């Protein structure tokens, strides 16, 4: 049964979907798979951010989910990627404290700050049947910009 949640009214297309039992080394392999899909979709500009966010979600499954089982889904559309990680842990991620910053000495607890910093959107949804949750993020490519000299050349000349 697929518990991944697709956003309403979007045109994301599923490109990769698989179930895993994760280990400490799984993130490296999943980053490679994600990068291949991003390259095929001409979305390499979001690869670093998406890989970093994916690493954080995989690490959370390894640390917090009994049995380390999850389902992973990579969804693509022109200019964007959405990654979903569904697991059996019902506890939703807790937001980091308001006063936490990079200078704090804690070695854990910054995952959601990182996710928020490197992605355009993220969220967590409980499964409707209560069997766990899906944590997801989206990274959007920046629209191409037209060099200034081209935009001036494309503008109509002023009338005398």
Provide structural commentary.
With 160 residues, the chain is an alpha+beta fold. The chain has a single domain, classed as 2-Layer Sandwich (Heat Shock Protein 90), CATH 3.30.565. It is built from four helices and five strands; from the N terminus they run E-H-H-E-E-H-E-E-H. A five-stranded antiparallel sheet has the order 1-2-3-5-4, with helices on one face. The model is unreliable at 1-6 (pLDDT under 50). Pfam families: HATPase_c_2 (PF13581).
Question: Can you summarize this structure?
Answer:
The protein is of the alpha+beta class. The chain is 30% helix and 25% strand.
Q: CATH architecture, please?
A: 2-Layer Sandwich
The CATH topology, please? Heat Shock Protein 90
- What string, H for helix and E for strand, traces the elements in order? EHHEEHEEH
Helix content: 25-40%
CATH C-level class: Alpha Beta
Quick check: average pLDDT? 84
Biggest sheet record: 5 strands, antiparallel
Enumerate the spans where pLDDT stays under 50 for 5 or more consecutive residues.
1-6
Distance between the termini: 69 Å
Tally of separate domains? 1
Q: What general form does the structure show? A: elongated
Can you list the strand order of the major beta sheet? 1-2-3-5-4
The computed structural class is alpha+beta
Q: How many distinct beta strands?
A: 5
What oligomeric state do these chains adopt?
single chain
Query: Per DSSP, what share of the residues sits in E-state strands of 2 or more residues?
Result: 25-35%
CATH superfamily: Histidine kinase-like ATPase, C-terminal domain
Radius of gyration: 19 Å
Counted by DSSP, the helix tally is 4
């Amino acid at each position: 049964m697929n518990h991944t949640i697709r956003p309403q009214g979007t045109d994301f297309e599923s490109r990769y979907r698989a179930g895993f039992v994760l280990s400490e080394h799984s993130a490296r392999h999943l980053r490679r798979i994600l990068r291949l899909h991003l390259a095929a979709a001409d979305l390499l500009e979001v690869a670093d951010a998406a890989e970093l966010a994916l690493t954080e979600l995989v690490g959370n499954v390894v640390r917090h989910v009994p049995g380390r089982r999850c389902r992973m889904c990579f969804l693509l559309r022109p200019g964007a990627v959405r990654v979903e990680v569904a697991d059996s842990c019902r506890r939703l991620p807790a937001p980091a404290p308001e006063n936490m910053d990079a200078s704090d000495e804690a070695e854990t607890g910054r995952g959601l700050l990182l996710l928020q910093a490197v992605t355009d959107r993220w969220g967590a949804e409980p499964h409707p049947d209560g069997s766990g949750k899906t944590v997801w993020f989206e990274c959007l490519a920046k629209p191409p910009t037209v060099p200034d000299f081209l935009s001036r050349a494309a503008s109509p000349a002023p009338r005398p």
